[in-house]
Amino acid sequence: MKKIFYLGIALCLFSCGNKQAKPEQTAESGITLMADSAFTKTVDGKEIKLYTLESGNGITMQVSNFGGRVISLWTPDKDGKYEDIVFGHDNIDKYLDYEGERCLGPVVGRYANRIAKGQFTLDGKKHQLPLNNNGQTLHGGPNGFDMKVWNVDNISKNQIQLSYTSPDGEEGFPGTVNVKMIYTLTPENEFKITYSATTDKPTHVNLSHHSFFNLKGAGNGTITDHLLTINASGITPVDTVLIPTGKITSVEGTPFDFRTATAIGARINADDEQLKNGLGYDHNWVVDRKTEKDVEFIASLYEPTNGRVMEVWSDQPGIQFYSGNFLDGKVTGKYGKAHNYREAVALETQKYPDTPNQPQFPSTRLNPGEEYTQTCIYKFSTKK
Description:
30 strands; Beta-galactosidase, Chain A, domain 5; aldose 1-epimerase activity; phosphoprotein; carbohydrate metabolism; mainly beta
């Protein structure tokens, strides 16, 4: 096992303290919401609060403006039983603690995924970013967008609008970037995320959402029996530090072929170099897109015992699938339940990793006068 690897991920996996906040019961279907008081705090003069959204058709979600984190997400199973299906903590201090878990439920940026050696050259100028993942930069660096208190510009029963201004030079990235992000729960039981960003200097922007999902309910067992479909014929293979080699390889005849629904655990321990590099699945799939810009079906996750289904729709060319390989049970999350090995998955729509150093990949460059946009939808349903 490559024990020296993945320092940045380790920062997301070890938490100090086990204080459990007292949750609040709701009348509807036994849903247990996190207490507002456990998520209220002032940091650097900015107030952090907890906000509760409802789809009006059975979905309830709690969001913090600290990193735009999804704190809880309650969905019904085929029998109408509700579970909170995302990993998280029961109070804001566990998210603020830099040595604790960072990567549960936030937006990640200014650049989601990895940049090799934390370096890129833009218009002849070399930029060095802080390193936080085995000599690489992961998810925008140690103080990326997930560690910022976002402004709450508008809030309604089913929507929250957030914004953040990233100053020129923050985490080594050029340009002042103004970001807007909207979370909406639709009557169709979609969790819809829309992003937009502008800059005053050429820079790179690649945003994504980083919830950890378990359709049995967070802390309720393995995800290796979840059935996964990914609409992708290729992946971007990686080296031993999970930086793309620059190639795109076919999934045909490999453990990475999820074009038809397949149990996550069916081939996860196969004798395969890419699986060894990731200690399981932690790779970018190249989506079989019909158009360049439309929101299209990307992936689905199905838990056959309770019938929960989560579809992923996006306008992005890639999706990072991570199978919870670094979760080790040392962290206790909500409801006193541990975050155990391979008990959650992340499905992150984005452009490819290390694109600033891979000119053959879809560009993440953003220039003044242009607007970065992205839409990601997680749609929830059940089947008998």
